[in-house]
Amino acid sequence: MTAISFARGAPSPECIDVGLVADCAAAVLERDGKTVLSYGAGGGYGPLRELLAQRHGVDPGRVFVTTGGLQGFVFYAAVQLERRPGRVLVEGPTYDRPLKILRRHGAEVIALPMDEEGLDPDVLEAELARGGDISFLYTIPTFQNPSGRTLGEARRQRIAELARGHGLDVLEDDPYGLVRFEGESPSWLHSIEGGEHVTFTSSFSKTVAPGLRVGWFVVPEAMRAAYDDRVVSTYISPPFLPQAIVHEVHERGQFEPNLERIRGILRAQRDAMLGALERELEGRATWSRPEGGYFLWLDLGDGVDTGELLTRATEAGVTFVRGADFFAGDGGGSAARLAFSYEPPERVDEGVKLLAGLID
Ligand SMILES: Cc1ncc(COP(=O)(O)O)c(C=O)c1O
Predict the structure, then answer these.
(1) What pLDDT score does 1 carry?
(2) Which of 89, 178, 249, 284 makes the best surface tag, with the fewest CB within 10 Å?
(3) How far apart are CA 252 and CA 231, in angstroms?
(4) Which residues contact 288 (CB under 8 A, 6 or more apart)?
(5) Ligand 1 pocket by C-beta < 6 Å: which residues?
(6) Would strands 295-299 and 318-319 be described as parallel, antiparallel, or unpaired?
(7) CB pairs under 8 A, 24+ apart, for 128-133?
(8) Ligand 1 centre and the CA of 359: distance in Å?
C-alpha cells in the first residue's frame, strides 16, 4: 500500500475536472489561438486581467497574472526588498517556501506569534514600536498554511489601520479563501485598506487546478513599474494558454459549480480528519478546526518531538510535515501540519488511526 500522505498540500486527483479543462483549452485555441500562443503583455492574458481587476476594483494595469502564486512571491520579495530594505515580518508558523525565498535574499525574518484567531495586532503593534526599517509583513489571513487558522474581522480592521497609520507594506496571500465549507467570509485586508500598502495575491491552484500554474497579484500603483520590469526580464510574458483556459472556465459560468464540487470533496475529507482526531486523540492533543482550506495544525504538547515521530510514522506508512519547518526561528517542535486535501475519507481515517497508535 502507498503511504497515506497528510504531507501533500495538493488537491485529491478527484478535485481536478480534466474534461472541463480540455474543453476550455480546445475552445480558446480554436477561437484565439494566434494570440494565446504568442508573446504578449508581461502582466498576463488581457481578458483574465480585466476580470480580476473588476473583482478587486482596480485598474487592470495593477493586476499581474503570474505562473502560480509562488512565482509572484519571488517577484514581490525581490522588488519590495530593493525598494524598501528592512526586516520581513511573518506569522509564526508560516508557509515554508516563502521562508526559503526570503533566506536566499539574506533577509532578516521575524516571526510574530499567532493564536487561534491568527496574527495578534497587539504583537504587530509592539514590533512596529521597536522602530527600525521594515520591508513588509507577509500574512495568510484565511485558512492559513500551515495552521488552518483564520484572522478575525476585528483584527483585520486593526491590521489595516496599522498598515495605514505606519505606512506598513503588507502582502496578503489568500489562495484558500474561496475554498470555504461553512461560515462567513471575512473582508480582505486589501479591500479594508484600499490597496495603497496592501498587495493582494491568490491563485487558481486550489479552485481550478495547480498544474495550470495561474496565480495573480494586485500591486499598489507605486510598485507597478518595478513589478512589470521584473516580470518582463524573467519570462517576457507568462504562458497565456493556461490563463485563457481559466478565463474560459469563468466565461462558461463553470467556475462556481466546479468550486462547489471541490468544496464538497474537501469538506468530506476535513470532516473525516476531525472525526478521527476526536475519536483517537481527544484529551491527548489539540488541533485547529478550520472552516475551509487544506490544513489543520496538530499540537501533541510538550514532550513529543514531531521530527522523531515523523521518522516512525513514515516507516508505518503515514506522512505529515513537522511543525518546526514552518518557523523562521524556534517553535513548532511538538506540532505537525496535517493536510486533509489529498487523501479520500477512508484513508484519512486510517492515517489518523496509524498516527495515534504511534503516539501511544
Ligand atoms: C499560502 C500559499 N501561498 C501560495 C501558494 C502557492 O500556490 P501556487 O504557486 O500553486 O499558486 C501556496 C501553495 O500551496 C500556499 O499555500
Answers:
(1) 75
(2) 284
(3) 29
(4) 116, 147, 148, 149, 296, 297
(5) 9, 68-70, 95, 140, 145, 173, 175, 203, 205, 210, 215
(6) unpaired
(7) 128/162, 128/166, 128/168, 132/86, 132/87, 133/84, 133/85, 133/86, 133/87
(8) 30
Distance in Å, CA 73 to ligand 1 centroid: 9
Look-up of cell digits 501533541: 300
The Å distance, Cα 175 to ligand 1 centre, comes to: 6
Three cell numbers at 233? 526580464
Q: Are the CB atoms for 3 and 347 separated by under 8 Å?
A: no
* 321-322/335-339 β-pairing: antiparallel
Q: Read off the C-alpha cell for 321.
A: 510535515
| pTM for this predicted structure | 0.97
Q: Which of 145, 202, 243, 294 for a ligand 1 pocket mutation test, highest count of atoms within 8 Å of Cβ?
A: 145
CA 122 to chain centre: 24
pLDDT mean for each 10 residues of the chain (360 residues): 94 97 98 96 97 98 97 98 98 97 97 96 98 97 98 98 98 98 97 97 98 98 98 96 98 98 98 98 96 98 94 98 95 97 98 94
Neighbours of 259 (CB within 10 A): 18
Rounded to 10 degrees, what is the CA torsion of 170, 176, 182, 188? Answer: 20
